[in-house]
Write a structure and sequence with these properties.
The complex is a heterodimer of chains A (231) and B (374). Chain A has 231 residues and is an alpha/beta fold. Helix content of chain A is 31%, strand content 29%. Chain A folds into 2 domains: 113 residues, D-Maltodextrin-Binding Protein, domain 2, CATH 3.40.190; 112 residues, 3-Layer(aba) Sandwich (D-Maltodextrin-Binding Protein, domain 2), CATH 3.40.190.10. Chain A has 10 helices and 11 strands. Chain B has 3 domains: 193 residues, 2-Layer Sandwich (BirA Bifunctional Protein, domain 2), CATH 3.30.930.10; 126 residues, BirA Bifunctional Protein, domain 2 (2-Layer Sandwich); 29 residues, no CATH class. Chain B has 12 helices and 14 strands. In chain B, helix 12 links the parallel strand 13 and strand 14. The longest helix of chain B is centred in the middle third of the chain and has 22 residues. The chains are: A alpha/beta (231), B alpha+beta (374). At the A-B interface, strand 5 and helix 9 of A face helix 6 and strand 8 of B.
Chain lengths: 231, 374
């Protein structure tokens, strides 16, 4: 029985491909629209990035590559034996640069769009959150966002969005957002600045616990090859 | 997702219903497993479906327990596990009975669980508890029984992964930790996330030696030979070394008993730390993403009920086992013979004929005419 590996075609694909090449492992090229590709006895599944932990948790895939952001959100019961080093980004809380209360921004005006001088995080301004009894947070990561505020003793109302989360504060949909940032450019273009870092993220190798033990002979080699090839 | 709006034929989340062949497979699996338990001279306990809620009090299960108030105002709970009930029975009704006590059970437990990856609200568990025996011998016996269950069912490629809670606890003995820090460390060790363990150790200001030992746990897994590596890696942590040597003696005995190749060691196995006190193990097989069962030593539980006894037990989940066997395509219970149709116009004499066939043990289908769909 061949090993099955779940990958996403998103942000982490190029890094995964480079890693496999360095490790001398096969990796599908120009696979087009095919979602399942078998190469040298390894079956590659191409799925949505947020679904990688699910395929691995259920054992449909023996292992996979997923961002730590996605893993934090999924809370899946999987092993994470390797930090693969690529796909680095930060999961942060970000709010409007002119103060995080939406009332202070009557409309999407020039003020709200002024790019910031970088987005170097100032000391976490938890005081900003505390001004309101309930913080309203927009996020693609509702579990992470809720847990983050709960752990600080704040009540938060999490607005689940599927994308363009950066718009929410300026439009008055939320006080702040929880999202991943790579360069911070999208944040500053939308008049946002980092208020707090939630977690540092990068690509992880995730492994199904049953496969890890019951298919040790097949998996141990792969894990070791990737360990040596990682950046 | 309105909690009350439903049609009468709708199933509530988390429950299941088995029909015909599915039910037959489950009964056959149960019969096999129970016959192994009986074969090792364990005696069955059929405990009550509900009991006082405080019998089940454990940090892990309380939030998942269905509890309700009895007519007399007492707080009751549907059993979320069997072990507490058996411990209570061992300390109560079976108080004074000769030791060791070998008890088994087979039945449903109820837990409030969000359905995902094989987790349901209604779980069928088959398990046993070995109470008051010499610990090493009892650990080995229980593992051998677990192994035989998997062998008998014809499961392919199964592995018992053994760990010991004394390794993780032994490394952290004496380290001043807040609960949140301890939980973060345990969570990262559980995920075998080296960098995550190192980060959590930094956050908890653990010494470099302690931190390095914890990081090392993420890799101390695999062939039982990792126990040699563990002895080197854990030098200086006497309680952890004692745990490793306990594991070593268990592995040696099982090796000699013919289970070499079926054993794995996983010193990063740290689930259930608030409950287990020694050996912990899980059974895995290819085809099912999660474990089919597991168990361990819990020497502190019986004292709660006033009869302090060392104890070790394990259970197999029938739901997971049935799914695994179906996926592996290995377990085929005997198909019952086709029924003999008995029926016609003469109701009384037909019934008499059917009764006659039944007396000879034959399978009958009573009634005239073909089946109809309505």
């Amino acid at each position: 029985m061949s090993l099955t590996l779940a990958l996403s075609k998103g942000r982490l694909l190029a890094g995964a491909q480079a890693l496999f090449r360095r490790a001398g492992l096969p990796f599908p090229q120009d696979e087009g629209r095919r979602l399942v590709v078998t190469l040298d006895g390894v079956r590659f599944l191409f799925v949505k990035d947020a679904d990688v932990p699910t395929y691995v948790e259920y054992g449909t895939a023996d292992c996979g590559i997923a961002g730590r952001d996605v893993l934090l959100e999924s809370g899946s019961d999987v092993y994470e034996p390797l930090d693969l080093g690529f796909g680095q980004c930060r999961m942060v809380v970000a709010g409007l640069s002119g103060g995080s209360r939406r009332e202070s921004i009557p409309a999407l005006g020039p003020q709200g769009l002024t790019p910031l001088s970088g987005c170097a995080p100032e000391p976490p301004s938890a005081a900003d959150y505390r001004r309101s009894s309930t913080v309203r947070v927009a996020s693609k990561y509702p579990r992470v966002a809720a847990a983050h505020f709960r752990a600080r003793g704040l009540s938060a109302e999490v607005v689940r969005l599927a994308g363009s989360v950066e718009l929410a504060p300026a439009l008055g949909l939320a006080d702040c957002i929880v999202d991943v940032v790579e360069t911070g450019r999208t944040l500053s273009e939308n008049g946002l600045r980092v208020l707090e870092e939630v977690a540092a993220c990068s690509a992880r190798l995730v492994v199904n616990p049953a496969s890890f033990h019951a298919r040790r002979a097949d998996l141990a080699g792969l894990i070791e090859q990737l360990r040596q090839a990682r950046a | 997702m309105n909690g009350t709006a439903h049609t009468l034929i709708q199933m509530p989340a988390g429950v299941q219903c088995f029909v015909g062949e599915e039910a037959r497979v489950r009964r056959a699996v149960e019969e096999q497993v129970v016959s192994v338990f009986e074969g090792w001279d364990f005696q069955e306990i059929i405990p009550p479906l509900f009991d006082y809620a405080d019998v089940f009090a454990s940090a892990d299960l309380t939030p998942r327990t269905y509890s309700f108030v009895g007519r007399d105002g007492s707080l009751l709970a549907l059993r979320p596990d069997f072990t507490s009930l058996l411990a209570k029975i061992a300390a109560g009704r079976l108080a004074g009975s000769p030791l060791p006590l070998r008890l088994y059970y087979s039945g449903e437990v109820l837990r409030y669980e969000p359905p995902r990856a094989g987790r349901r609200s209604e779980l069928y568990q088959m398990g046993l508890e070995h109470l008051g025996g010499e610990p090493r011998a009892a650990d080995c016996e229980v593992l051998a029984v677990a192994a035989e269950c998997l062998e008998r069912l014809g499961v392919n490629g199964w592995v018992l992964a053994l760990g010991h809670v004394g390794v993780f606890n032994g490394i952290l003995a004496g380290a001043p930790l807040e609960e949140a820090q301890w939980l973060a460390l345990r969570d990262r060790v559980e995920s075998k996330d080296e960098e995550g363990v190192a980060e959590a150790a930094r956050a908890a200001r653990l010494s470099p030696t302690v931190s390095a030992a914890l990081v090392g746990l993420t890799g101390l897994t695999g062939d039982p030979r990792v126990l040699d590596k563990a002895e080197d890696a854990l030098r200086g942590f006497a309680p952890a070394l004692a745990a490793v040597s306990e594991l070593r003696s268990v592995v040696a005995a099982l090796d000699e008993a013919g289970l070499r190749g079926r054993l794995a060691v996983d010193l990063g196995e740290v689930r259930g730390l608030d409950y287990y006190t020694g050996l912990v193990f899980r059974a895995y097989a290819p085809g099912l993403g999660s474990e089919v069962g597991g168990g361990g030593r819990y020497d502190a539980l019986l004292a709660r009920f006033g009869r302090p006894l060392p104890a070790v037990g394990f259970m197999l989940g029938l739901d997971r086992l049935a799914l695994l066997l179906e996926r592996q395509g290995v377990f085929a219970p005997a198909v019952p013979p086709a029924p003999e149709p008995v029926g016609g116009a003469a109701l009384g004499s037909d019934l008499a004929r059917a009764r006659g066939l039944r007396e000879k043990g034959r399978r009958v289908r009573f009634g005239a005419g073909p089946e109809t769909a309505r």
